[in-house]
Design a protein that fits this description.
single chain; 14 strands
């Protein structure tokens, strides 16, 4: 027992010394220096050529590049230019076995580069790009990570302005699909293939706010293209935007309805108030025309009819019809006045003729008599019976109500008070049912 105790103490002392020695050796290792040595080793001259693409899986076939995106923001969606601007983090990942290195027992997870020209890069480009730029504040927002097994991860932050052809037939009740297309410029599918990263290839920042649109969903797909020089790999993201209708309801539809209703005020004014009715009709007509031109100024000139064109066109027609109605009322008023003057003249002439006939009767011979009673007595009793029992024709309720207004000008105003609102309400029913149901059908 006395011999075993010193041996155990010696063993513990040796183990402690070895542990302390290993800790000191690890403390002296400079991993940054090791990274530099490894980079010089795998990327040194004569060892790696960035002009040659890496081999595919198992050393054969095309190089496979996995892609994923992170949409940071969508700033503008322009209807008149048919484009949209997006800022995103773009990532590519591929395997290059020439870049394998020793990870020092798991101590080096990856190597980081900031110079993309030192390794082979896929020749990807955005086929529907109009403008684009990198971000260099404060340093270039780009990095390359090389993993021990030869995997390469390339990440960069870019801003793009992309074309987005739009169909505006249902504007502003429409939905637009804007695409982001990525393709290989020079390598065919025999040499380079783009694939979406498995899992979640596209991420969108939370609480993405757009002024007049809502991003409903996005879909990833493939869009390989064939040309005379070969087939090229292509990826695309379809972003489905729904236009916010509340803005257009407040700015366009409600003001147009108010202008149409204001134009109906002239139906309730006196037909003799010519300055008031003319000024009201002309003012509403000019305001409606200005509203329509302002709407078209914010849209591209297209060859088809949009939903907003139908609305503004019908509203403009109603306002113009109210102005024409006053012209018809004015003409009918003058016609009624002329007819009254003619009746008055006719009554005066009949009164003068009756006075002349009475004077002639007084001048005739007193012995001359007119047997009037036999004429009345000799009348056929059947005819008298028919006259007594004949009932007057029944009038329609609408005609009976219209007959309460003696002049034609007043009747036109009264009919317009009812006809214009009813027709406009019918138009609203047809308009909203047509375009809302068409929107649902296209969505299905």
């Amino acid at each position: 027992m006395d011999i075993s105790r010193p041996s155990c103490a010696i063993l513990l002392l040796v183990a402690f010394c070895l542990l302390h020695l290993a800790t000191c050796m690890n403390a002296k290792i400079n991993f940054r220096e090791k990274e530099k040595q490894i980079l010089d080793q795998i990327l040194g001259p004569g060892r790696y050529d960035a002009r040659i693409r890496p081999s595919g899986i198992n050393g054969t076939g095309p190089a496979v590049v996995n892609i994923n995106l992170f949409v940071r923001s969508i700033t503008t969606i322009s209807d008149i230019k048919m484009e949209y601007s997006v800022q995103l983090t773009f990532r590519e990942q591929w395997l290059d076995e020439r870049l394998k290195f020793n990870n020092l027992g798991g101590r080096l997870k990856y190597l980081t580069l900031t110079e993309a020209n030192r390794v082979w890069m896929p020749d990807l480009f955005f086929s529907n790009e109009k403008e684009g730029h990198f971000h260099n504040i404060i340093m270039p927002n780009v990095y390359i990570r090389i993993f021990p097994n030869g995997n390469v991860l390339y990440s960069i932050r870019i801003s793009l302005t992309l074309s987005c052809p739009m169909n505006l037939k249902l504007y502003p009740l429409d939905k637009q699909t804007c695409s982001l297309r990525m393709a290989s410029y020079g390598w065919t599918t025999d040499d380079l293939v783009f694939l979406w990263k498995e899992g979640d290839p596209v991420q969108v920042v939370k609480n993405l706010h757009l002024p007049r649109f809502t991003l409903e969903k996005f879909l990833t797909d493939y869009c390989n293209s064939k040309t005379n020089t070969g087939e090229y790999s292509c990826l695309k993201v379809d972003l489905l935007f729904k236009r916010e209708f509340s803005y257009y309801l407040i700015q366009i539809y409600i003001p147009c309805c108010m202008l149409v209703i204001v134009s109906w005020v002239s139906f309730w004014l006196d037909q003799g108030a010519v300055p008031a009715r003319v000024s009201l009709g002309v003012t509403t007509l000019l305001t409606m025309a200005t509203q329509s031109s302002g709407i078209n100024a914010s849209l591209p000139p297209v060859s088809y009819t949009k939903a907003i064109d139908v609305w503004t066109g019908v509203c403009l027609t109603f306002v113009f019809g109210a102005l024409l109605e006053f012209a018809l009322v004015n003409y009918a008023s003058r016609s009624d006045m002329h007819r009254e003057n003619m009746k008055k003249t006719r009554r005066e002439m009949e009164a003068a003729a009756s006075m002349d006939a009475a004077s002639d009767l007084l001048d005739t011979d007193s012995n001359t008599t007119f047997a009037m009673k036999p004429l009345v007595r000799g009348a056929d009793p059947k005819i008298r019976q028919c006259e007594i029992h004949m009932s007057p024709p029944r009038k329609n309720c609408c005609r009976l109500w219209i007959s309460k207004f003696p002049t034609r000008s007043k009747r036109i105003d009264v009919i317009s008070r009812i006809t214009f609102p009813l027709v406009f309400a019918l138009f609203n029913v047809i308009y909203w049912s047509t375009y809302l149901f068409r929107d649902e059908e296209e969505e299905k």
